[in-house]
Each structure stands twice: as C-alpha cells, then as structure tokens.
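[step 3/7] fold_predict: job queued, chain A
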Amino acid sequence: MQRRSLARTLLAAALLAAPALGLAQQPASSAPWPTKPVRLVVAFAPAGPADIIARLLGQKLGEVFGQSVVVDNRPGAGGSVASALVARAEPDGYTLLINTSSYAVNPSMQRNLGFDAEKDLTLRSPWSPPART
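[step 4/7] structure written:
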C-alpha cells in the first residue's frame, strides 16, 4: 500500500514537472517535434528523487511524443557538469536539463564553468517568459 502511494506521489510530481520543462507547449507553426529521441539530462545521481521523477516523466513524455526519452544522469560540481553538457549541446530542443536553482548560484562560486548560464541555457517553466526566437 505504501509503495502504491509513493508511486502516485512521484507520478504527480513528474506530471507537475512537465510544464516546468516547457514541453507542454509548441508553436503551431513549427515542424513536428520530436522526430528523434529526446535526451533528458539530470544533474543528480541515479536512484535519487530527481532521477525517479525524470524517469517517470520521461516514460510519460515518450508515450505522448511517440519517441524515446533517454534519461542521462550527470551528477557533479553542484549541477555544473550537467549544465555544461546541455549548454554545449546542439540548440535543437532535443537535449533538456533537470536541475535546481544551482545553475544560477554556481557562477558566483566557481570561476570557470565552461558556459554562461544566461546566454547558453534557456529557462523553460510556467513562470518564464516565452523563448526568444
């Protein structure tokens, strides 16, 4: 019984996280998306809460998209390892990041992150402004 309750709680959290990733909206004039697997980079270790939510979210998004969603755990340096990986990825919308607000704090704590969080990453959440095109 407790296991079922935990699964429901995690599923609810994953569904709430979907809009935070900006995946729920797509411009009507754009080409069909996705046409290839989506990579969901998680800035935390496997088997933790963020990983479990990412995997549940990835499974549901895969069903909705009709494409695979691959969860890629890249813990380390307060989320900077995963953030740098996403910042260097092709800006085509197929590499997404699950991280905490550490991406905003890390520049003040580390001299050279290898990326500029403001220029290289686009925040997508229900409270963020529309992406610049």
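[step 5/7] annotate
The longest strand covers residues 38-42.
Residues 3 and 76 are 29 Å apart (CA to CA).
exit 0
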